[in-house]
């Protein structure tokens, strides 16, 4: 009789644990972002910004190289006062090139954040909607896990939610 009671209690506890178990899903957000058409648009916008900055940078480099060539060839003919002025101009140009490079990098980082933040928000909102609709209490990043069951991968569901066509495996 004791064994039956113990087995009944164990069975009830197992049922209670099963009822309280919460679904945990996972997703590779990088794969999702790569598949999103909004990502391609953001990348194109960032590339356009980078290309326009590169045009100005190339002009500065060309001017720097021209001045460098002039200094190398003509500086032996210059008086000490002219040399001092020309070398100062050359150093100022070198500083301007360096400052432009630093400013351009900062600008591109800001633009990258500006262009990709809405894409990341769309992805996060979609993940949350799919998780809620499918009863997932937790969704973790696939990158953080070493072993995962394939049945809890939310990537196909989120792609379907965002109407992103499935691409065949390569």
Automatic annotation (TrEMBL):
Protein name, entry field: OmpH family outer membrane protein
Gene Ontology CC terms: cytosol
Keyword annotations from UniProtKB, A to Z: Signal
Gene source species: Lacibacter sediminis
Coiled-coil residues: none
UniProt key word Signal: yes
GO molecular function, one term: unfolded protein binding
Matching InterPro entries: Chaperone_Skp, Skp_dom_sf
GO biological process, one term: protein stabilization
Matching PANTHER family: CHAPERONE PROTEIN SKP (PTHR35089)
Signal peptide: 1-21
SMART domains: OmpH (SM00935)
Entry's family note: Belongs to the Skp family.
């Amino acid at each position: 009789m004791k064994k039956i009671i113990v087995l009944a209690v164990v069975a009830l506890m197992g049922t209670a644990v099963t009822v309280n178990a919460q679904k945990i899903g996972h997703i590779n957000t990088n794969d999702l972002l790569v598949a999103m058409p909004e990502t391609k648009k953001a990348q194109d916008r960032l590339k356009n910004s980078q290309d326009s900055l590169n045009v100005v940078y190339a002009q500065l480099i060309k001017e720097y190289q021209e001045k460098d060539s002039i200094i190398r060839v003509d500086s032996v003919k210059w008086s000490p006062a002219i040399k001092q002025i020309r070398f100062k101009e050359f150093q100022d140009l070198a500083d301007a090139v360096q400052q432009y490079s630093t400013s351009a990098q900062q600008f591109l980082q800001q633009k990258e954040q500006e262009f990709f933040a809405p894409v990341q928000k769309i992805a996060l909102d979609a993940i949350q909607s799919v998780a809620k609709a499918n009863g997932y209490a937790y969704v973790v990043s696939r990158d953080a896990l070493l072993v995962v069951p394939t049945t809890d991968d939310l990537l196909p569901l989120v792609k379907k939610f965002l109407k992103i066509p499935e691409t065949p495996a390569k």
